[in-house]
From TrEMBL:
Keywords: Hydrolase, Metal-binding, Nucleotide metabolism, Zinc. GO terms for biological process: adenosine catabolic process; hypoxanthine salvage; inosine biosynthetic process; nucleotide metabolic process. InterPro entries: A_deaminase_dom, Ado/ade_deaminase, Metal_Hydrolase. Belongs to the metallo-dependent hydrolases superfamily. Adenosine and AMP deaminases family. Residues 20-366 form the Adenosine deaminase domain. The keyword Cytoplasm does not apply. Its EC number is 3.5.4.4. NCBIfam families: aden_deam, PRK09358.1-2. GO terms for molecular function: adenosine deaminase activity; metal ion binding. GO terms for cellular component: cytosol. This is adenosine deaminase. Its cofactor is Zn(2+).
């Protein structure tokens, strides 16, 4: 089935790809084109699992569909290996922006960890500069096609290493020069945000925005630490906040839910959830609720008023796009065009931009959705 053909009759005739979108949770090293991996690997003499782009895409999808975040993360060894030079980083970043625009994205934030791209001799600063060069080249290429896109960097520290304060200072140093915010990523279970309290204290003192991976491979304690220790303004994934909800009864379409204190705080404070449906299935983040998209607590969270956003996480590993994720959700939960617009408005409101820029983004989304 083509991506814009729908089993949901409410979206018949609607091209989801053409709708304006906002992407908040999108990893650079998780969005490398398979053909680019093959070509860059050939330049450095790196062996790859397949030398055909389609076959390599199949390999990523198969390897990622493990039900384990730890196993899922191993696929990044290949993508990061071809992103160790200025040229490699620049090319991947440019293509990333072009792929976002082809997906209908008008504003995106790309997260990546500079500390993982130093094996070729680059400094942290040089790596960030290379990615920014690629982003700007991609924005220019999109502009030449009479489309507009803006992309900011979320400078990311790895939660299982000890460089978070150094990376936090790097992010602040590039404020106004490409960096939009800060994140921590990597193996979540056993590596709480509390381990990086010094970095988060520094970021807070500099009024620099933070999102934290939490509520994916670990549960409520991880989310609590992200909010308290990390002062996170958004939760990367955050899907396991649903563990703090107790469905007391269901009668037809009426569902009575009892909130825990943490879930009520996240809902009432409108802390955005960077949900990634396909990825959440692949990594087992929603294993408590089931193994199919229809089991994802996305709809429960949405209906209860949480600030849900839709994201791809890793385009290459999940072999997906924002268009595809929205279509899958629409078909699973019978969402209308108004629902899809609500997800984009939530994302626009959560973007690490000034109030004026967020208002402009919201207006672009409103104008781009049919009445």
């Amino acid at each position: 089935m083509a991506i814009d053909q729908h089993s949901n009759p409410q979206l018949e005739g609607v091209s989801i790809r053409s709708l304006p979108k906002v992407s908040l949770h999108d990893h650079l090293d998780g969005a490398v084109r398979p053909q680019t991996i093959i070509e860059l690997a050939d330049e450095i003499g790196l062996e790859v699992p397949a030398t055909d782009a389609g076959a390599l895409a199949d390999w990523f999808e198969d390897q990622s569909d493990s039900g384990s975040l730890v196993e899922y993360l191993k696929t990044f060894d290949l993508t990061t290996a071809v992103m160790q030079t200025r040229e490699g980083l620049r090319r991947v970043a440019q293509e990333f922006v072009e792929d976002l625009a082809a997906d209908g994205v008008i504003y995106g934030e790309v997260r990546w960890a500079p500390e993982q791209h130093l094996a070729g001799g680059l400094s942290l600063e040089e790596a960030v500069e290379a990615v920014q060069e690629g982003i700007e080249a991609g924005e220019d290429a999109v502009d030449a096609t009479d489309r507009d896109i803006r992309v900011g960097q979320l400078i990311t520290a790895m939660r299982h290493t000890d460089r978070s304060l150094e990376i936090a200072k790097l992010a602040v140093a590039f404020r106004g020069a490409g960096a939009s915010g800060f994140d921590i990523a990597g193996p979540e279970d056993g590596f709480p945000a509390a381990n990086h309290r010094e970095a988060f204290d520094y970021l807070a003192s500099e009024f620099f925005p933070v999102t934290v991976h939490a509520g994916e491979a670990a549960g409520l304690d991880s989310i609590r630490s992200a909010l308290i220790d990390g002062r996170a303004l958004r939760l990367g994934h955050g899907v396991r906040i649903a563990e703090d909800l107790d469905v007391v009864s269901e009668e037809g379409e009426e569902v009575l839910v009892q909130f825990g204190d943490l879930a009520r705080w996240v809902r009432d404070r409108e802390i955005p959830l960077e949900l990634s449906p396909s990825s959440n299935l692949q990594t087992g983040a929603i294993a408590k609720w089931g193994t199919q998209l229809e089991d994802h607590p996305f709809d429960l969270l949405y209906q209860l008023g949480f600030a849900v956003t839709v994201n791809v996480d890793n385009r290459t590993m999940s072999r997906t796009s924002l268009t595809r994720e929205l279509k899958l959700l629409a078909d699973a939960f019978d969402y209308t065009l108004d629902d899809l617009q609500a997800f984009q408005l939530n994302a626009a409101a959560a973007a690490f931009l000034s109030v004026e820029e967020r208002e402009e983004l919201i207006a672009l989304i409103a104008d781009g959705f049919p009445d």
